[in-house]
Amino acid sequence: MEALDNEKLISGNKQLKLTTHRLRYYDSSSKNSNFTSIMVDKISSIELTYQSNIWLLIIGIVTIPAFIGIILIILFYTTKKHVVSVTPDGGSSVIFQIKGMKRDSIEDFIQKVENASMKLKYK
């Protein structure tokens, strides 16, 4: 990534980079590749949600064989995941799943995005 004028890296890894000017998301798998870049002064909202398959829990509770029900309930709790959505003023949202990060780290990242956005919006 070539830096813009006065642009500095705030936080990042291979998939997600936050600079003083941009939020960039790279996602590639064997089937497809995805790249989204949002100027941080255009960010209008950030959302942190949990996604899970509620049907696993419901079927697990009403299943007569207890062993299968317990397995489905365990699957419900182990497949629950954090998902962050960053939405700009127009354009595509950046939606990514958080793996292996504690909630405090996620909230810290969101705070960094908000701080970078506010600095550019209210210069």
Please render the helix and strand layout as text.
Blueprint: E1 9-12, E2 16-19, E3 22-28, E4 33-39, E5 43-51, H1 54-62, H2 66-78, E6 81-88, E7 94-98, H3 103-121
Helix pairs in contact: 1-2
Quick description:
By secondary structure, this protein is an alpha+beta fold. The chain is built from three helices and seven strands; from the N terminus they run E-E-E-E-E-H-H-E-E-H.
SS-based structural class? alpha+beta
- Helices and strands, in N-to-C order? EEEEEHHEEH
Main sheet record: 4 strands, antiparallel
Strand order of the largest sheet: 1-2-3-4
Strand composition percent: 35-45%
Low-confidence stretches are none
Based on CA inertia axes, which overall geometry fits? elongated
Number of strands: 7
Structural summary, described in words:
33% of the residues lie in helices and 36% in strands. The protein has helices spanning 54-62, 66-78, 103-121; strands spanning 9-12, 16-19, 22-28, 33-39, 43-51, 81-88, 94-98. The strands form 2 sheets. The protein has a 4-stranded antiparallel β-sheet, covered by helices on one side. A 3-stranded antiparallel β-sheet has the order 5-6-7, covered by helices on one side. Helix 1 runs antiparallel to helix 2 (66-78).
